[in-house]
């Protein structure tokens, strides 16, 4: 069978982008053909026969460019006789949508009147409605039960169109190394002291992930603990405002902000605490990777995968609404807590069970089943 995958932008360190490539490769393993349609592609071309179509789009504003891209992609896809059209961004005309982003309507309600009814926000709202409205034909693959209830509250989406997919961790990526060796290597590479404590934040979109909150927390540490602590932030974003905040709080020599990189599991095995006080996060795959690396986690309950941290007993999940003073206190406690070994061991056990439950092909098998039913009925149907 022949699949069309659509995503606005591809870059190798994005969570949705990594999921898309994994699913595409798993579809290829099942013997199917995969074409990816995108506005931009960063990084190497995919191996294994996956075809990438980069479509230039025009428009004065982002949402206008997105709409131009959608129009062109739908025209090309319509002329190529695909069995299933799968979106990794919300848009009309999809057979299936991989829900990598939180509910836009839920977030939009907290914006000002003028923001809510701007052309941009009305456009994004219409795209989300096209996917989730009660009478749509699109089947949705969801990452968290929490987000499922939010979408249904806003759109009354029938439950038979919403499918939770099991979390996935790659055994090849999450190979455990000698902890002492990883700790020494991290501190050597970044010029930290051998006994320094290292906070690690990973993710694209530093404000969304809460980097400013972590910097504030670092500034609030006791003088002795602050002297021994360093913060390493890695992700795809402009670091300038966070570098200014670090400088303003007198922490510029204790904070390093880097672009995305491929050795995150190794860095996790050398760090002391994953800090992820996100403002919003549909899932948060980085939380699972931290557990698989034996790294304790401090996060917020807005993260869909925060429930796994709680179930595993692999760290602390802070309840909403976010309280900076509470975060500061828990971060300080966790850096020196005797529970660190228990958090590490519990996370490793839980992550091992996740690996055993999903070989990475669950979504591809779902899409294969959907495409088969569509062939047999002539309609985009749920599983």
Explain how this protein is built.
There is one protein chain. With 383 residues, this protein is an alpha/beta fold. The chain has two domains: 2-166 and 359-377, Rossmann fold, CATH 3.40.50.2000; 179-357, 3-Layer(aba) Sandwich (Rossmann fold). Helices cover 45% and strands 17% of the residues. The strands form two sheets. It has a seven-stranded parallel β-sheet with strand order 3-2-1-4-5-6-7, with helices on both faces. A six-stranded parallel β-sheet has the order 10-9-8-11-12-13, with helices on both faces. Helix 13 packs across helix 16.
The tally of helices reads 17
How many strands appear in the DSSP assignment?
A: 13
Strand line-up of the largest beta sheet: 3-2-1-4-5-6-7
Query: What is the average per-residue confidence, as pLDDT, rounded to a whole number?
Result: 93
C-alpha geometry = globular
Helix content: 40-55%
| CATH-defined fold name of the largest domain | Rossmann fold
Q: Over the alpha carbons, how many angstroms does the gyration radius reach? A: 21 Å
Using the 3D structure, state the CATH architecture of the largest domain: 3-Layer(aba) Sandwich
């Amino acid at each position: 069978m022949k699949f069309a995958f659509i995503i606005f932008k591809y870059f190798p360190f994005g969570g949705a982008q990594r999921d898309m490539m994994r699913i595409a490769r798993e579809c290829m393993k099942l013997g199917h053909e995969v074409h990816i349609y995108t506005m931009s592609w960063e990084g190497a071309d995919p191996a294994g026969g996956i075809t990438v179509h980069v479509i230039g789009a025009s428009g004065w504003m982002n949402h206008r460019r997105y709409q131009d891209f959608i129009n062109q992609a739908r025209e090309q896809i319509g002329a190529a006789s695909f069995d299933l059209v799968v979106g990794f961004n919300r848009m009309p005309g999809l057979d299936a949508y991989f829900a990598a982003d939180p509910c836009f309507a839920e977030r939009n309600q907290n914006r000002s009147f003028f923001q809510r009814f701007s052309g941009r926000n009305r456009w994004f709202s219409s795209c989300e409605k096209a996917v989730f409205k009660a009478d749509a034909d699109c089947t949705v693959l969801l990452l968290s039960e929490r987000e499922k209830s939010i979408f249904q509250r806003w759109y009354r989406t029938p439950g038979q169109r919403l499918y939770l997919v099991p979390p996935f961790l790659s055994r090849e990526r999450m190979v455990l190394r000698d902890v002492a060796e990883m700790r020494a290597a991290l501190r050597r590479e970044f010029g930290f002291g051998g006994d320094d404590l290292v906070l690690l934040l990973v993710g694209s979109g530093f404000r969304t992930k809460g980097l400013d909150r972590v910097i504030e927390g670092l500034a609030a540490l006791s003088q002795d603990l602050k002297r021994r602590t360093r913060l390493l932030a890695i992700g795809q974003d402009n670091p300038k405002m966070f570098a200014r905040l670090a400088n303003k709080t007198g922490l510029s020599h204790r904070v390093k902000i880097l672009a995305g990189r491929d050795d995150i599991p190794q860095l996790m095995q050398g760090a002391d605490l994953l800090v992820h006080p996100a403002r919003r996060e549909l899932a948060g795959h980085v939380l699972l990777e931290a557990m698989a690396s034996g790294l304790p986690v401090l996060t917020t309950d807005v993260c869909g995968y925060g429930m796994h941290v709680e179930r595993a007993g692999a760290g602390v999940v802070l309840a909403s609404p976010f309280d900076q003073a509470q975060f500061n206190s828990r971060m300080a406690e966790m850096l020196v807590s005797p529970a660190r070994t228990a958090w590490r061991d519990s996370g490793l056990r839980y992550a091992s069970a996740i690996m055993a439950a999903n070989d990475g092909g669950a979504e591809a098998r779902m899409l294969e089943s959907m495409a088969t039913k569509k062939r047999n009925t002539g309609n985009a149907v749920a599983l």
